[in-house]
Task: inverse folding
């Protein structure tokens, strides 16, 4: 059972999301909060598998809350769900450690699939947001592309590219006929070689350089 927390300052949104999540046979709402500070208080007594996090909220916004939660509870995934498709929010939350960024007009099934994918370790970025990531990051540098290819083995590069496409370790292992442990080892090696913190940073790097 996937334990979900919902952080949003609109009770109508919380109620709607809670109803949708609780109707799923593999999900349940663990707790809800109306701002980041309340989320930080509640997570101390009950750690969810994933938090659906809004951005603009009183007391503490979603960017700051995401950074603090990922620092203290790195195993808890954070999936941003917001109405704001603004560059600064996108980059700041992904940099803070969010596993993805979705807009509130996303179809329900896509949101539920995104939750399942993020919990498995995938990166969930809807196309309109992904295009902003690519367009607004610095222009492609062929030297950087070559440096990435030189640092990584063929297998590490292949897995890094799949991660940028949003695949989880399990999905990658099935496609490449490798064990999940082997995929994780390749990922760890790639992160160390590229001096990155997590798979989200790796996905952004690959998207940025159109690898």
Result:
């Amino acid at each position: 059972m996937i334990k979900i927390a919902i952080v949003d300052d609109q009770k109508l949104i919380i109620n709607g999301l809670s109803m949708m999540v609780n109707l799923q046979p593999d999900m349940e709402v663990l707790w809800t909060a109306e701002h980041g500070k309340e989320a930080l208080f509640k997570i101390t007594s009950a750690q969810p598998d994933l938090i659906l996090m809004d951005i603009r909220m009183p007391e503490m916004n979603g960017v700051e809350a995401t950074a603090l939660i990922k620092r203290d509870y790195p195993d808890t995934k954070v999936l941003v769900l917001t109405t704001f498709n603004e560059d600064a929010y996108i980059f700041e939350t992904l940099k803070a450690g969010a596993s993805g960024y979705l807009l509130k007009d996303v179809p329900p099934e896509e949101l539920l699939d995104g939750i399942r994918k993020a919990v498995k370790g995938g990166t969930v970025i809807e196309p309109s947001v992904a295009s902003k990531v690519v367009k607004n990051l610095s222009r492609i540098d062929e030297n950087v592309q070559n440096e990435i290819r030189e640092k990584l083995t063929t297998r590490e590069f292949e897995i890094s590219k799949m991660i940028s496409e949003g695949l989880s370790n399990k999905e990658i292992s099935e496609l490449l006929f490798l064990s999940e442990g082997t995929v994780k080892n390749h990922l760890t090696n790639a992160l160390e070689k590229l001096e990155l913190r997590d798979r989200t940073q790796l996905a952004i790097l690959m998207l940025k350089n159109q690898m």
